[in-house]
UniProtKB/TrEMBL annotation, chains A, B:
Note: Reaction mechanism of ThiL seems to utilize a direct, inline transfer of the gamma-phosphate of ATP to TMP rather than a phosphorylated enzyme intermediate.
Gene responsible for this protein: thiL
Domain PurM-like C-terminal: 152-304
Occurrences of domain PurM-like N-terminal (ranges): 27-139
Domain of life according to the entry: Bacteria
InterPro entries xref list: PurM-like_C_dom, PurM-like_C_sf, PurM-like_N, PurM-like_N_sf, ThiL-like
Organism name: Oceanobacillus indicireducens
Function: Catalyzes the ATP-dependent phosphorylation of thiamine-monophosphate (TMP) to form thiamine-pyrophosphate (TPP), the active form of vitamin B1.
UniProt xrefs under Pfam families: AIRS, AIRS_C
Protein name as catalogued: Thiamine-monophosphate kinase
Binding site for substrate: H52, E261, Y318
Reaction(s) this enzyme catalyzes, per UniProt: thiamine phosphate + ATP = thiamine diphosphate + ADP
GO molecular function: ATP binding; magnesium ion binding; thiamine-phosphate kinase activity
Record-stated family: Belongs to the thiamine-monophosphate kinase family.
Amino acid sequence: MDEFSLIEAIKQKQKTYKQSSLQRGIGDDTAVFREAAGELAIAVDTFVEGVHFTEKTTDLFRLGYRALAANFSDLAAMGALPMYYLVSIVVPHRMKESKLSEIFNGMKHLADRYNADLIGGDTVSGNELVLSVTVIGQIEQGKARYRNLAEVDDIVFVTGTLGDSQAGLYILQHDLESVHRQYFINRHQLPVPRIAFASSLGSIKRLALNDISDGLGNEAYEIAEASHVSIILDDKKIPVHPGLAAFPMGLQEKWKYFGGEDFELVGTVAKKDWQTVQQAAEKLNLQVTEIGHVINKDEHAVYLKKNGNMTKLQKEGYTHLK
Amino acid sequence: MDEFSLIEAIKQKQKTYKQSSLQRGIGDDTAVFREAAGELAIAVDTFVEGVHFTEKTTDLFRLGYRALAANFSDLAAMGALPMYYLVSIVVPHRMKESKLSEIFNGMKHLADRYNADLIGGDTVSGNELVLSVTVIGQIEQGKARYRNLAEVDDIVFVTGTLGDSQAGLYILQHDLESVHRQYFINRHQLPVPRIAFASSLGSIKRLALNDISDGLGNEAYEIAEASHVSIILDDKKIPVHPGLAAFPMGLQEKWKYFGGEDFELVGTVAKKDWQTVQQAAEKLNLQVTEIGHVINKDEHAVYLKKNGNMTKLQKEGYTHLK
């Protein structure tokens, strides 16, 4: 399959566009879409073979799915609904181009749930597989969930359970058997971006949100620093899957606070709105847990309450340029 | 310089945003901008070391400049004005991260001319340098310059001269001396996207435009196929720089029709609007040349009139996924 056939294979006919604002998708110098009311969110994320994934940890379908999920997770953390995505791929010379369609199929599988259209991209050859995804979403006017919106006395919460993705990666890398093997692997390979949850919180006026791509510790720090507040997390409240207990304690701790890539959301909200958050999660059958609160402290740091002690959480892990 | 310092170094303070619609640039999960009247154009292009450039053919400043220029050229071809750009870079392990700022400086040099803001990106490590740029521009409502808008009897025109970029690349690759050495090198390394020209044609209702990234032949074919017409090009009218005559005839021909990366524009326009096009170019001190016309022929092909003969132009060169 040459590149021209690939374009023909993946490009949507105009009448199949899902977004009514789309004027022109793939097939011209740029995509064109009409502007609607509200605000637009845009983000890009890049994934490199050997750094973010290997043949051992994913197939190409799940690679595509997960790359788009990571980007949709950024949209969720801004309170945005996905509309469009663009994909750049550096294709290794050794790789059959026909394999590329599996990556696109994985992305489409996720995109279709949100009626998001693929509207452009670029494929070029190189030595290693690089996947770069740009996403565009729409936000209700004034409802962007910036990370600098946390206020003193807010409740700090997270969705889902933390550390699952790293457990799944560990299982794949070490060929481990485990009762919860498939659960953890799915959490690593097929994460669900919390779009539905974030977009169901529209009635709440002020909300700070971050998606947990780099670990709870880093994301909480980003909120604390941007909002000029400090955050106290209660170790015994951090939600984890029961199966995590089967791993060495050191790994459990690491994955919980610094693992990342669960693509859950951490947020802060006024106490008066906490019930609304809980009800929204319940409707979606999604776990949401109060894990701490926001305090006024000059350091703009994250503190961990554990066994009666209070320690400052260290920042760790890789920081993406966002 | 770690990645965090790099972000701090390149991110703009809110009060320095050039685009008034920008709500939030770098520094949160996504960038956020308010929608305005009109339509938005978006495109992405990716550049790989060893494929699109080498240390011999560019320094990092010019690499950044050229990557953004190639993207802005896509916006020009859609009649769009640049507003925003996002940058993903795969940084080779051997490369000092401080070098990265040169790439960003090169982009900023061009972006500042159009008041375009850098609003996001991603840097990750890998084995080879990969630069992926996403651009967003604004189009006056109903004035998108789609390539399917050519009509029978239209005049076909190009801006500037063709083949210069390939001549510059050849000079760099072969360490050639030439009277016009610096001219050709500049045309390769520092191309000027034809934004000002394209945006000054707003009074023309219908206009088909393509930027010449893959050679005149390919771009003319794209217009012919999308518009269901055929195009006749007159060989003796194709504008070239006088210095091109110093190169072997075979190379001249190749560069003129299939060289590409001059980032000039090829377009078709009704005869009644041709004078408007010429006047717009004259105001910008830009060369614009009538090189052929659009005919009604079932094949949807591009024909070359040369020495009294008419031959079908062969498609050649690499087709990007757009």
